[in-house]
UniProtKB/TrEMBL annotation:
Signal sequence bounds: none
Protein name, per record: Nitrogenase molybdenum-iron protein beta chain
Record note on cofactor: Binds 1 [8Fe-7S] cluster per heterodimer.
Subunit composition and interactions: Tetramer of two alpha and two beta chains. Forms complex with the iron protein (nitrogenase component 2).
Gene responsible for this protein: nifK
Length: 519
């Protein structure tokens, strides 16, 4: 790719759009567009832009009730697709328009840099009027013939929910019409896009899958392989760090426990390039999902995300349920390790104690640069709670805490975490607020660092505040999802990213006499 006016001596040179659109041809096109747009003058645009950075505008911004601007969340069926990808041989099927599935697939592909299999019933105008039963039956017939899944996980979109589609009866019709066999495993969840968010969709789909599998023929305690190791269910929730799933497994195996990761998409979304494409790599086996209710206990590691799943485990399975904050940092990981050791009646191995010590040592090494730094944090509620607890451990000062998809319990959880540290006194907690609210907060009460997904980068640019990327989605950086952020090892990864982001900013702004070789 070359610019309109220049050729390159390098064959097939790829130019980033940063360079392409600086070309004078494109710049002239942009300027000429103004006469057709009938927009305000540059002076008026600048005046309004400056006004949006004031306290006066902040008050008007926070007074709005019927408008959401740049919410830090996605819709329910996106979460449902991720839940399906966490199980062996499972092909997610979204009952709705083709465009919806294209969005979900591209959203995940941009984050994980991996192909994401998901099918659609491709509903159009006629299905919206007469119902989509034929679409769903045909989709299942095609999926079975072409892609040969072991299990189908069906979710819905706005169109299907508005007209009241009945997935239970439609799946029954698919069996009657022999699109799938009578005993073929199909799980389903109603996931309307116009309420909730991706974490709710993940929850109801995971509950649907576990409920369905636990009633299958494989749900037989006598079929569980005999072992001296205690079997524990670990449920990470809507966790887009494939490294976290592997870290949970590694830690529990070090402790002599047999971990069953329910919803393990680490292989599905981080597969090797070995010359062959596997449509269904890895995932929690269907047998493990079916037998999960017979294991000693289940660990819920995202309280807000997994409410429905927790109800299934507690009320239907009648299994011991351990609900913890996501184990990020020293305190969070200590609580997780202690709870696993107590539940499984095992000892904490020396290796984990060493890892804890290394993290504490690293925090000590970096303390001078992170201590007292003011931060703003935004993202999904469970991640935000855990990250806040971690930055408090580091002696950082959380100032603005925003979670668009938080529920009524979020503020109480945050206040509990903040009150446990003297560094939490300056924080304000903003559930159900969006990133346009956060923009006002950062302009009027500046911070040293933003912590959150790629979606915060525009706030960072406008306010000249560095961004440490963590969470979902992250489209503009590579491979972050491959490394854990949970456990002592994950805490070290987080600390490394945080302190080096701060050091990068110090170097960027350093005068000549302070451009140090040693920090």
């Amino acid at each position: 790719m070359t610019t309109p006016e220049h050729t390159s001596a390098i064959p097939l040179q790829v130019l980033d759009h940063n360079d392409v659109f600086r070309d004078e041809v494109y710049q002239e096109q942009f300027e000429n567009k103004r006469e057709f747009e009938n927009g305000a003058s540059k002076e008026e645009v600048e005046r309004v832009l400056q006004w949006t950075q004031t306290w006066e505008y902040r008050e008007k911004n926070f007074a709005r009730e019927s408008l959401t601007v740049n919410p830090a969340k996605a819709c329910q069926p996106l979460g449902a697709v991720l839940a399906g990808l966490g199980f062996e041989g499972t092909l997610p099927l979204v009952h709705g328009s083709q465009g919806c599935v294209s969005y979900f697939r591209s959203h995940f592909a941009r984050h994980f840099k991996e192909p994401v299999p998901a099918a659609s019933t491709s509903m159009t105008e006629d299905a919206a009027v007469f119902g989509g039963i034929n679409n769903l039956v045909e989709a299942m017939d095609n999926m079975s013939a072409l892609y040969k899944p072991k299990h189908i996980a069906v979710s819905t979109t706005c169109m299907a929910e508005v007209i009241g589609e009945d997935l239970f009866s439609y799946i029954g019709a698919a069996r009657e019409q022999e699109a799938i066999s009578q005993d073929f495993p199909v799980s389903y969840a109603h996931t309307p896009s116009f309420v909730g968010s991706h974490i709710n969709g993940y929850d109801v789909m995971l509950k649907g899958i576990l409920d369905s599998l636990s009633k299958s023929a494989d749900a037989d305690a006598s079929k569980i392989e005999k072992s001296d190791k205690v079997r524990l269910n670990i449920i990470p929730g809507f966790d887009t760090y494939v490294g976290n799933h592997r870290e949970y497994r590694r830690m529990l195996e070090l402790m002599g426990v047999h971990p069953i990761i329910l919803g393990d998409h680490s292989a599905s979304l981080d597969s090797p390039a070995d010359g062959e494409y596997d449509l269904y790599p890895g995932g929690t086996t269907l047998v493990d999902g079916a037998q999960a209710k017979f294991n000693r206990a289940s660990f819920i590691l995202q309280e807000s995300t997994l409410r429905r799943t927790a109800e299934l485990i507690n009320d239907v399975w009648k299994q011991e349920l351990v609900t913890l904050e996501t184990p990020i940092g020293v305190t969070g990981t200590d609580a997780f390790v202690t709870a696993v050791a107590r539940t499984a009646d095992v000892k904490v191995p020396a290796e984990l104690t060493l890892e804890r010590g290394r993290l504490v040592d690293a925090i000590t090494d970096s303390s001078a640069y992170v201590h007292g730094k003011r931060v703003a944090i935004a993202g999904d509620p469970d991640l935000v709670v855990a990250l806040t607890r971690f930055v408090l451990e580091l002696g950082m000062v959380p100032v603005h805490i925003v979670s668009t998809n938080a529920d009524s319990t979020f503020k109480a959880r945050m206040e509990k975490a903040l009150s446990a540290s003297k560094f939490g006194d300056a924080a304000t907690v903003w559930p159900e607020k969006d990133l346009w609210h956060l923009r006002s907060l950062v302009f009027t009460e500046p911070v040293d660092l933003l912590i959150g997904s790629m979606q915060l980068k525009w706030i960072g640019r406008e306010t000249n505040t560095p961004l440490f990327r963590v969470g979902f989605p992250i489209f503009d950086r590579h491979h972050l999802h491959r490394f854990p952020i949970v456990g002592y090892t994950g805490g070290l990864h987080l600390l490394t990213g945080l302190v080096n982001t701060i050091l990068d900013e110090l170097d960027r702004n350093a005068p000549a006499h302070s451009y140090d070789a040693v920090r």
